[in-house]
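Quick one, tokens below. Sequence please?
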């Protein structure tokens, strides 16, 4: 449903607010999948502190899904991708060159930026609105999970009547499709409206690799200390019992 706005500045605020949800959903997803993929090469490390990693990975999964549900929420009174696109459709005049030049009047490259047609393509906008709606089977499935597990726990599901979830499983590929498409759609209109796009790669994403490296070094040092203690114990036993060959 269209969100009533009074100015282009208010549309800009809506874009900013939803940008964080979409970008964060993608950032959490990437961190979640990269850490999960690193388990096989660091099996001992993850086993050594299994509880910590279980909660960490679970929290990243939840953070991703909560934000993805916010992006594709179908509630008429919330900011979501569907409502944002409906708002853009109802205020397409704000994309006119006159308004665009006013928004970016302090940009040194305004003349070259204004040469491009900034108005959304009507056909593409309709396709994007459909994708963000619950007419899209993927969004419909996501909303089923939102309403029964993610946003709150459904009473019937809690009583074991979980057929609705069993019949609407969301695969990793489908989740990634929603993440990718929402990011593409959002950046399409952000680029048209204010000549800017968002990245889904956060500075410091690879910090977890340093953590794994240092933890593995710690385990290696621990093994060395244990081996040193064993050798010292054998040496002392050999001194106490000359008949012991130290093996």
């Amino acid at each position: 449903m269209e969100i009533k706005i009074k100015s282009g500045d208010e549309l800009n605020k809506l874009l900013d607010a939803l940008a964080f949800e979409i970008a964060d959903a993608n950032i959490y997803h990437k961190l979640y999948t990269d850490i999960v993929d690193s388990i096989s090469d660091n099996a001992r490390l993850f086993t050594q502190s299994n509880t910590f990693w279980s909660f960490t990975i679970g929290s990243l999964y939840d953070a991703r899904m909560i934000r993805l549900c916010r992006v594709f929420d179908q509630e008429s009174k919330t900011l979501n991708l569907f409502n944002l696109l409906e708002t853009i459709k109802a205020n397409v005049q704000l994309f006119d060159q006159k308004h665009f030049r006013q928004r970016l009047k302090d940009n040194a490259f305004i003349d070259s930026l204004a040469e491009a047609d900034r108005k959304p393509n009507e056909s593409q906008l309709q396709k994007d609105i459909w994708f963000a709606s619950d007419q899209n089977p993927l969004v419909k499935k996501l909303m089923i999970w939102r309403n029964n597990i993610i946003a709150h726990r459904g009473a019937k599901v809690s009583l074991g009547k979980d057929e609705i979830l069993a019949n609407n499983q969301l695969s990793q590929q489908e989740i990634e499709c929603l993440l990718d498409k929402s990011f593409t759609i959002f950046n399409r209109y952000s680029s048209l409206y204010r000549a800017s796009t968002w990245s889904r790669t956060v500075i410091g994403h690879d910090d977890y690799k340093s953590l794994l490296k240092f933890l593995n070094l710690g385990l290696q040092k621990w093994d060395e200390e244990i081996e040193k203690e064993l050798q010292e114990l054998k040496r002392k036993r050999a001194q106490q019992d000359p008949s012991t060959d130290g093996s």
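Residues 207-240 form the longest helix (34 residues). The chain has a mean pLDDT of 94.
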